[in-house]
Amino acid sequence: MNKKRKLITFDWAIKRLLRSKANFGILEGFLSELLKQDIVILDVLESESNKDYKTDKFNRVDLKVRNSQEEIIIIEIQYDREYDYLQRIFYGVSKTAIEYMEEGKAYTGITKVISVNILYFDLGCGSDYIYKGTTRFVGLHHHDLLELNEKQKQLFRKESVESLYPEYYLIKINRFNDIAKDTLDEWIYFLKNEEIKESFTAKGLKEAEEKFSIMALPEDEQKAYEHYKDDLRYQASMFESSFGDGYNEGKVEGIIEGMTQSAKNIALNLVKEGTSLEIIAKVTGLQKSAIERLLKNEMGLDI
Predict the structure, then answer these.
(1) Distance of CA 10 to CAs 33, 136, 154, 174, Å?
(2) What pLDDT score does 302 carry?
(3) Helices and strands (DSSP H and E) totals, the chain
């Protein structure tokens, strides 16, 4: 890979470029690698909950897709750094399922929802970097798994109870050790580092490298991206004037514990943009040692 070739961040792309049909191949590649089956995107579902408002703090897109079994499912992708997340996932999936159910249709018509969450923080305790959640019913006395009977299998066109319910994927980017052992790891490497190695063969990555190149963007899109980065710097400036003074005293651990999530997000966003620790410290008013500890705790980085 040409290291001088700068790629835009995935959170900006998912709100802008990836909603275009011309770029569906990128997300199709990512989802196919994650779900281990060929995924074809049929449409981007624009609802009141995922429109691209300037003040919207969520980076989310809902997709109507067809899988290898010719099933139509809805996939919700979120890219975030917030901590109040487990309940938000539950709310989001429930709202999505109801939102796209046809009025007056039987419950058998509820479309399956898969929630894909790209996270840049440690959500709960666990050493892995990819977690999958499903719904299963286990007997309290005999510990047997509740299964569908033959009539239900024909009605629902499913083989298991859990296949009727939403699936959840949590991808904890900061837990990834940058060693790509398979094609899904190649995607996670890209999501973490915003770069694609020449040896990578994962579906959709080569197209992402072409479309995510800053220099390949139309002039108006380049300006929009620069404006997005300016917004991050503005957030940092607002933090300096509003909160920075409160973090200039105390020990490193005390500072980290006292940081608001907003402060942490600003520091992490500036790091992702390649901003030096000296500038981040100056902008946020945080001690350099506190920022270094934050990066180690949140992203596994030793500076």
Answers:
(1) 17, 33, 40, 15
(2) 63
(3) 11, 6
Q: What is the pLDDT of residues 6-30, one digit of tens each?
A: 677 777 777 777 888 888 999 999 9
Crossing angle of helices 277-284 and 261-272, in 10° steps, is 150
pTM over cut 0.85: no
Closest CA to 172 of 62, 85, 267: 85
In the chain, which ranges are E strands? Answer: 40-45, 59-66, 72-80, 113-119, 130-133, 167-172
Mutual orientation of helices 219-242 and 277-284 as an angle, nearest 10°? 50
In tens, the pLDDT along 119-128 reads 877 777 788 9
Q: Which two tokens stand for residue 287?
A: 């001690």
Find the length of the chain.
303
d(CA 6, CA 121): 24
pLDDT confidence band for 188 (50 / 70 / 90): very high
**Strand extents, DSSP E, 69-129:** 72-80, 113-119
